[in-house]
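Sample entry (122 residues):
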Amino acid sequence: VHLVESGGGLVQPGNSLRLSCLASGSDPDLYTIGWFRQAPGKERERISCVNADDGRTYYAQSVNGRFTISRDNAKNTVTVFLQMNRLEPDDTAVYYCAARFSGYCAGQYDYWGQGTQVTVSS
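Predicted structure, serialized as C-alpha cells:
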C-alpha cells in the first residue's frame, strides 16, 4: 500500500484544516488507516483511526471533539480525511497517515506516508 498525505499548511488558532490520505496499491480497502502526528521534541502520537472492517473510529483525548476522521473506499483507492477544527498551537506537528492489515486500530502500522506539516500560529 502506498500512502500520500496532503492538505497541511499554516493556519491561525481557531481555524480549520482538512488533511487527506490517499491509499493505493493492492486492496487498500482491506487496510485500517490511522493518523499520527509528531511535534518537535515529542514522541509520535496516534490521534485517530478508522478501521477497515466496520468503519469504527478512534480519537485520542487531545483531539476528541475537534477532529473527525472519515473514509471513502473507491474501487482501487481509499481516501481518508481528517477534518481538524478549532485548531490550537499545540496541534502544530508533522501529520502522517499509516496503514495496517487489520481491523483494529491498535498495534503496529506497516506502511507510512511522507507526512504533511501543520502549523497553527497567529
